[in-house]
């Protein structure tokens, strides 16, 4: 895996990231840090990448188990350390899984498998942060 991050110049703290798969992402800093607040912060990108990684796992695991899943949202709420390095210290992953006849034990198992075995991002972040999970099932 490879990516490239380039500073967009002296007028702020905006960066352009290019992924190895050819996608572009803009990141920016807060105004108090010299940024213009035009794009997500780098640490927000870490958090959303972690949410994407684990949501991907949960959907894949449920689909492989032949669950009739129609939707999955993962809302992450995180706390960071007050001093540098301002690592994540607590993160709650709340899943809203939509489908027909979804079994709570299957959803719980999918989340646990992602957390314990498959989601590289949350396993890495779990080295500094206390990670908790919650979920709800919406029947359609």
Automatic annotation (TrEMBL):
This is OsmC-like protein. Pfam families: OsmC. It comes from the Bacteria. Gene3D superfamilies: 2.20.25.10, 3.30.300.20. Coiled coil: none annotated. The lineage of its organism: Bacteria, Pseudomonadati, Pseudomonadota, Betaproteobacteria, Burkholderiales.
């Amino acid at each position: 895996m490879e990516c490239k991050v380039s500073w967009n110049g002296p007028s702020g703290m905006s960066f352009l990231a290019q992924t190895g798969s050819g996608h572009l992402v803009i990141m920016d800093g807060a105004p108090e840090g010299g940024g213009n607040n035009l794009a997500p912060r780098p640490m927000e990108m870490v958090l959303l990448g972690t949410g994407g990684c684990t949501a991907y796992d949960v959907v894949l695991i449920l689909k492989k188990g032949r669950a009739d899943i129609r939707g999955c949202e993962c809302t992450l709420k995180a706390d960071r350390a007050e001093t540098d390095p301002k690592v994540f210290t607590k993160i709650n992953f709340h899943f809203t899984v939509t489908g027909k006849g979804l079994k709570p034990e299957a959803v719980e198992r999918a989340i646990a498998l992602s957390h314990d075995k498959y989601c590289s991002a949350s396993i890495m972040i779990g080295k500094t942060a206390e990670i908790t999970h919650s979920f709800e099932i919406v029947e359609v």
